[in-house]
Design goal:
By secondary structure, the chain is an alpha/beta fold. Helix content is 48%, strand content 20%.
């Protein structure tokens, strides 16, 4: 669990912040209220961020922040002051952001900011710019304001295309004028034509005074646009707005494609993403296997222990399936007690091995325990197909083999 150090002498605000961050964002918050307590800390290494009230009763306002920055700790300042002088002073000291206390009744801004920082931590940034000095400036910018984000550099469209294929990049910073008469517009169009819109956030930059450039970038698919003589605080706001939209979209998409009970994908995702993935593997001449798994005697579990235990069995099985798969495979709750696994670049024999050696082994080793201490064991049957070229046919053939498995021995992989 990520840890935050909160340095705040107002106990009401501190309690409010601590409760919100620990309940809504799953942070572990350590609260101290003075510089004296700070000096007693054995180390700062365990803390990912520091939330700092700059006005403490036993400390000069600059002393503590200077110590934190000297220790390379990302700092978010908490203050009741709305003075532009204060803002300018601490911006120069390389703090990540400011939280104004009067805006902290619901702490929405702080929650959003930390959510954005976590998203940036989990994903990567590509800077497409042919100026080494400006690349260096942007690297320094991200090191200050998004300190846990990995940044990649490219100075040609060809290099940028390779980068987005190789890495977990989600944010693109794209300059207009590039080498060899290339423009960032070409790269933006390439990205929007070949990838889902939600796959990348794009912020375009230019030193040009041509107002038409802005319109062309936005029409080509850039999320936002900025002149190169920007203030850092403005650039942070633009990036945050783009990332916030991506986070919100991903949350909505998760609700649309996930089964609420098990956390597995749903049928919509299977036929949407599965069809695209199957076509991609076919072009690469790589095998795809579909497995259908059905819990044996599930009605009996519901009748004996109740539907709440039945739901727990479904959640338990769904978790085992998700934890047993390779990167790139996915599991779907197909309906009731039936699940589908999509195995990419995987033969029927390889899929069978995964099911027997990982999934069935784990199911046999584990069980559900009821409130009165009874152990509930369960099992499953499975059918696998890897010979058809259409997704619906793969599912149909796998379902036929599942029926055969149920008829013959009940608990087997055909």
């Amino acid at each position: 669990m990520n840890k935050i150090l909160l340095i705040e002498d107002d106990r009401f605000y501190a309690k409010n912040i601590k409760n919100v961050l620990e309940s809504q964002l799953s942070y572990e918050v350590t609260h101290i209220s003075s510089y004296a307590e700070f000096k007693q800390l054995p180390s700062l290494d365990e803390y990912k961020f520091v939330l700092l009230d700059i006005y403490l009763p036993d400390c000069n306002e600059c002393e503590l922040i200077d110590k934190l920055i000297a220790n390379n700790k990302p700092v978010i300042v908490i203050t009741a002051s709305e003075s532009l002088e204060v803002f300018d002073k601490y911006t120069k000291k390389r703090v990540i952001d400011f939280i104004i206390k009067r805006d902290m009744v619901r702490l929405d801004y702080l929650i959003t900011k930390l959510t954005i920082l976590e998203f940036m931590d989990e994903h990567e940034v590509l800077i497409l710019d042919d100026s080494p000095s400006f690349q260096k400036f942007l690297q320094h910018f991200f090191a200050i304001y998004y300190p846990y984000t990995k940044v990649y550099l490219a100075d040609t469209i060809k290099a940028a295309k390779q980068m987005i294929e190789m890495h977990n990049i989600k944010l693109l910073i794209v300059d207009y004028m590039l080498k060899n008469n290339e423009t960032g517009l070409e790269f933006v169009r390439y990205v929007r034509e070949r990838y889902f819109y939600e796959d990348f956030g794009i912020v375009a930059l230019t030193a040009s005074d041509d107002s038409n450039v802005i319109t062309r970038f936005l029409k080509s698919g850039a999320n936002d646009f900025l002149k190169k003589n920007f203030f850092n605080a403005e650039f942070v706001c633009r990036i945050d707005n783009v990332v916030k939209s991506m986070v919100q979209f991903h949350k909505i998409k998760e609700l649309a494609i996930k089964d609420a009970l098990t956390g597995c994908y749903n049928r919509y995702y299977l036929f949407d993403a599965g069809h695209k993935l199957l076509e991609n593997f076919k072009r690469q001449k790589k095998p795809v296997s579909i497995a259908i798994l059905d819990l044996d005697h599930f009605k009996q579990i519901n009748d004996t222990y109740g539907h709440s235990i039945g739901d727990e069995v479904l959640r338990h099985f769904g978790t085992i399936l998700q934890n047993s798969l390779r990167t790139g495979d996915f599991v779907v709750r197909y309906g009731g007690e039936e699940f589908v696994i999509f195995f990419g670049n995987c033969s029927k024999e390889e899929a069978k091995k995964i099911i027997e050696e990982r999934i069935r082994k784990k199911v046999h080793e584990d069980c559900i325990v009821t409130d009165d201490g009874k152990n509930v064991h369960y099992n499953f049957s499975c059918g696998i197909c890897d010979s058809e070229t259409e997704l619906k046919e793969l599912i149909k053939k796998a379902d036929e083999k599942l029926y055969l498995a149920k008829r013959t021995r009940g608990v087997c992989v055909v």
